[in-house]
Design goal:
Number of domains: 1
Structural class: alpha/beta
Oligomer: single chain
Number of helices: 12
Radius of gyration: 19 Å
Helix content: 40-55%
Order of helices and strands: EHHEHEHEHEHEHEHHEHHH
CATH class: Alpha Beta
CATH superfamily: Dihydropteroate synthase-like
Strand order of the largest sheet: 1-2-3-4-5-6-7-8
Length: about 290
């Protein structure tokens, strides 16, 4: 089972963005209802940097969504004033702060909010020099973040580590580094949770092909105990995989990762899609927009 955080209530959306700016609750509440019915476990409310009036927007958005859904919220903004407004407005369940990075200013201001509002927090592995270059740097950053959070009184079980997914079309090595780090995390800090933005791995691919990358990468991460993922809450097939309803596909992908290559001629259409996509994500086949048809 993977906890699914629906990413769709996002200011970048062509319908939701204007609704947020105009304080029009209709489209937002309609989407919140659908995402809840689809089986999301959390709703991510992403208002971006929201430099002007972000606190008022987040306060309104939290209240608007909680009128129609009882799901816990992931509050997603780089504006910590807006983040605090959302934490104050939250009345249903334990909120998730998305996110606090290892940048000194973010840590200094973000960590006290976690303790004050008794929230869970996503520890984003982004430091002074940007994103980590490999699995070892991710591991060092994870230990550093958890140490500083623990020192402030935050239990490790309230921390969700995000190693940062990168687009397969940009750097396949970073995709593999994310997998390698996930294989290490349970040994380094067994009590910590893990989370990853799946849509990042498919960013830049044609829209109709992105779900194949997202679904298969989630299955690959599940091999190493993935706790949660930020997902497209309209992808019902992905949600069904997360809820354990496609065990045969999970086994196929994990077998391929273990070096057990099946005969492609023996696979049905869905299995073939996972087979080809796994090989692309493992770097066995060079990524191109035609990976599913070649």
């Amino acid at each position: 089972m993977v906890i699914c955080v629906a990413e769709n209530i996002n200011i970048m959306s062509k319908t939701i963005g204007p609704a947020m700016k105009e304080r029009n609750p209709g489209p937002i509440q309609d989407m919140a209802r659908v995402l809840t019915e689809n089986g999301a476990d959390y709703l991510d409310l992403n208002i971006g940097p929201a430099r002007k009036g972000g606190d008022e927007m987040m306060d309104w958005l939290v209240k608007t969504v909680q009128e129609v859904s009882d799901l816990p919220l992931s509050l997603d903004t780089t504006n910590l004033v807006a983040m605090e407004a959302g934490l104050k407005a939250n009345t249903k369940g334990k909120p998730l702060m998305n996110s606090v990075s290892l940048q000194p200013e973010r840590l200094e201001k973000g960590i006290p909010m976690v303790t004050q509002y008794k929230a869970d927090v996503i520890g984003l592995l982004w430091g002074k020099e940007g994103m980590p270059r490999d699995a070892d740097e991710r591991a060092a950053m994870a230990v550093d973040f958890i140490y500083q959070a623990n020192e402030a009184g935050i239990p490790t079980s309230d921390i969700w580590i995000d190693p940062i997914a990168t687009p397969i079309c940009v750097d396949a090595n970073q995709v593999l580094s994310g997998l390698e780090f996930m294989s290490m995390l349970g040994e380094i800090v067994p009590e910590a949770k893990s989370i990853l933005g799946l849509s990042n791995v498919s960013n830049g691919a044609p829209e109709d092909l992105r779900p194949y990358l997202n679904r298969t990468y989630m299955i690959m991460l599940m091999k190493y105990g993935l706790y949660s993922a930020i997902v497209d809450g309209y992808d019902k097939e992905l949600l069904s995989i997360a809820k354990g309803e496609r065990p045969e596909h999970v086994k196929l992908v994990h077998d391929i990762m273990d070096g057990n290559k099946p005969d492609p001629a023996s696979l049905d259409q869905k299995e073939l899609e996972h087979y080809k996509t796994t090989r692309v994500l493992m770097g066995k086949v060079l990524f191109s927009n035609s990976w599913l048809t070649t």
